[in-house]
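Format is sequence with structure; example below:
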Amino acid sequence: MTYVVTDNCIMCKYTDCVEVCPVDCFYEGENTLVIHPDECIDCGVCEPECPADAIRPDTEPDMEKWVEFNRKYAEHWPVITRKKDPMPGYADMDGQTGKLEKYFSEAPGEGD
Protein backbone atom coordinates (compact mmCIF):
# COMPACT_ATOMS: atom_id res chain seq x y z
CA MET A 1 0.00 0.00 0.00
CA THR A 2 1.00 3.61 -0.54
CA TYR A 3 -0.62 6.98 -0.09
CA VAL A 4 -1.22 9.36 -2.99
CA VAL A 5 -2.22 12.96 -3.47
CA THR A 6 -5.42 13.50 -5.46
CA ASP A 7 -6.83 16.48 -7.34
CA ASN A 8 -8.22 18.33 -4.33
CA CYS A 9 -4.65 19.45 -3.59
CA ILE A 10 -4.50 21.38 -6.88
CA MET A 11 -4.63 25.15 -6.32
CA CYS A 12 -4.66 24.65 -2.53
CA LYS A 13 -1.26 23.05 -1.90
CA TYR A 14 -1.42 22.87 1.85
CA THR A 15 1.91 21.56 3.09
CA ASP A 16 0.98 20.38 6.57
CA CYS A 17 1.61 16.85 5.31
CA VAL A 18 5.23 17.34 4.31
CA GLU A 19 6.51 18.28 7.73
CA VAL A 20 5.20 15.06 9.30
CA CYS A 21 6.53 12.71 6.61
CA PRO A 22 9.37 10.65 8.11
CA VAL A 23 10.88 9.73 4.71
CA ASP A 24 10.54 13.00 2.76
CA CYS A 25 8.59 11.48 -0.13
CA PHE A 26 6.61 14.61 -1.08
CA TYR A 27 7.44 16.49 -4.27
CA GLU A 28 6.31 19.99 -5.21
CA GLY A 29 4.71 21.14 -8.42
CA GLU A 30 3.72 24.70 -9.23
CA ASN A 31 0.20 24.24 -7.84
CA THR A 32 0.05 20.81 -6.17
CA LEU A 33 2.05 18.16 -4.34
CA VAL A 34 2.61 14.47 -5.06
CA ILE A 35 3.92 11.50 -3.08
CA HIS A 36 6.47 9.18 -4.63
CA PRO A 37 4.72 5.80 -4.27
CA ASP A 38 8.02 3.89 -4.27
CA GLU A 39 9.38 5.98 -1.38
CA CYS A 40 6.23 6.10 0.77
CA ILE A 41 6.49 3.71 3.73
CA ASP A 42 2.72 3.57 4.21
CA CYS A 43 2.83 5.03 7.72
CA GLY A 44 -0.28 7.14 7.10
CA VAL A 45 0.73 10.13 9.23
CA CYS A 46 0.23 12.52 6.30
CA GLU A 47 -3.40 11.64 5.57
CA PRO A 48 -5.03 13.23 8.66
CA GLU A 49 -2.78 16.30 8.34
CA CYS A 50 -4.26 17.36 4.99
CA PRO A 51 -6.96 20.03 5.50
CA ALA A 52 -8.24 19.42 1.94
CA ASP A 53 -8.61 15.64 2.40
CA ALA A 54 -6.49 15.21 -0.74
CA ILE A 55 -4.35 12.30 0.49
CA ARG A 56 -5.82 8.84 0.05
CA PRO A 57 -4.55 5.26 0.41
CA ASP A 58 -4.12 3.45 -2.89
CA THR A 59 -6.41 0.69 -1.63
CA GLU A 60 -9.48 2.87 -2.22
CA PRO A 61 -11.41 2.39 -5.50
CA ASP A 62 -10.07 4.08 -8.65
CA MET A 63 -6.72 5.07 -7.15
CA GLU A 64 -4.57 3.40 -9.82
CA LYS A 65 -4.55 6.54 -11.98
CA TRP A 66 -3.45 8.61 -8.98
CA VAL A 67 -0.60 6.22 -8.17
CA GLU A 68 0.74 6.68 -11.70
CA PHE A 69 0.10 10.44 -11.62
CA ASN A 70 2.03 10.77 -8.35
CA ARG A 71 4.89 8.58 -9.63
CA LYS A 72 5.20 10.51 -12.90
CA TYR A 73 5.52 13.94 -11.32
CA ALA A 74 7.56 12.82 -8.28
CA GLU A 75 10.25 11.78 -10.73
CA HIS A 76 10.43 15.31 -12.22
CA TRP A 77 9.64 17.72 -9.40
CA PRO A 78 11.82 18.79 -6.45
CA VAL A 79 11.42 17.29 -2.99
CA ILE A 80 9.67 19.40 -0.35
CA THR A 81 10.20 18.77 3.37
CA ARG A 82 9.07 21.95 5.09
CA LYS A 83 5.73 23.63 5.54
CA LYS A 84 4.91 26.65 3.38
CA ASP A 85 1.85 28.86 3.12
CA PRO A 86 -0.96 27.45 0.96
CA MET A 87 -1.65 29.02 -2.42
CA PRO A 88 -3.45 32.36 -2.64
CA GLY A 89 -7.20 31.75 -2.89
CA TYR A 90 -6.90 28.24 -1.42
CA ALA A 91 -10.08 28.58 0.65
CA ASP A 92 -12.16 29.21 -2.48
CA MET A 93 -10.53 26.31 -4.35
CA ASP A 94 -10.83 23.70 -1.59
CA GLY A 95 -13.45 21.14 -2.58
CA GLN A 96 -13.98 22.28 -6.17
CA THR A 97 -14.45 19.49 -8.67
CA GLY A 98 -12.63 19.09 -11.98
CA LYS A 99 -9.46 20.80 -10.78
CA LEU A 100 -7.16 18.40 -12.66
CA GLU A 101 -8.67 19.36 -16.02
CA LYS A 102 -9.11 23.07 -15.22
CA TYR A 103 -6.02 24.08 -13.26
CA PHE A 104 -3.25 21.47 -13.11
CA SER A 105 0.23 22.67 -14.08
CA GLU A 106 3.05 20.27 -14.97
CA ALA A 107 5.60 22.93 -13.99
CA PRO A 108 7.79 22.12 -11.00
CA GLY A 109 7.56 24.01 -7.74
CA GLU A 110 10.45 25.49 -5.79
CA GLY A 111 11.04 22.58 -3.41
CA ASP A 112 13.29 23.15 -0.42
User: Anything to note?
Assistant: The domain at 3-82 is CATH 3.30.70.20 (Alpha-Beta Plaits).
